[in-house]
Write a structure and sequence with these properties.
Distance between the termini: 62 Å
Bound molecules: fe (ii) ion
Strand content: under 5%
Largest sheet: none
């Protein structure tokens, strides 16, 4: 009996406490992705000016990718016998990605994106650590997503460098 349940890994009855913990981490990831979709959507439309176009295009592309991440988190919550939360449970946190006072303030958007991606990187790194040795499937999924976020941050760090080099950031 012990052997039979042990072979079920994270789905085993005896691992229900760890499974609940992972589900909570996944829910937080889900909400972070949803809020990022909202923030990137607004910031892919609001910015004005010639220099804003690269940022607009990049964020417009990212919306679909972040939405895909949210879907992956949702599916994994269900696979672990959790329930994907309803919209009333949503609590906004991205104060740094609110529209700037002036819509030509591209640096504000770039820094906000870097902060959002950093938050995701920190949270997903925690999930990778928590799932180590107990839930390789969730870990594998989150490693893929983590790589996407690292790529996003690196791209926007590059944008920021350009502004810094010109003394604009
Ligand atoms: Fe994401
Ligand atoms: Fe991202």
């Amino acid at each position: 009996m012990t052997q039979a349940t042990a072979s079920e890994g994270i789905l085993a009855e005896e691992n229900s406490e760890q499974r609940e913990q992972i589900i909570e981490l996944l829910k937080r990831g889900y909400w972070m992705e949803i809020e990022t979709v909202m923030s990137y959507l607004a910031n892919s439309v609001n910015p004005d000016g010639v220099r804003a176009q690269e940022i607009i295009e990049s964020l417009a592309e990212d919306i679909q990718e972040e939405l895909g991440h949210a879907q992956k988190f949702a599916e994994r919550i269900k696979e672990l016998y959790g329930v994907v939360p309803g919209s009333l449970e949503f609590e906004a946190e991205q104060s740094f990605l609110q529209p700037p006072e002036h819509q030509t303030d591209v640096v504000h958007v770039i820094k906000g994106v870097i902060e959002a991606e950093t938050g995701a990187i920190e949270h997903y790194t925690r999930i990778v650590e928590t799932t180590e040795g107990i839930d390789p499937v969730t870990q594998d999924m989150v490693i893929d997503i983590l790589r996407d976020e690292q790529g996003h941050r690196r791209l926007f760090e590059g944008f920021l460098r350009e502004y810094e080099a010109e003394g604009l950031a």
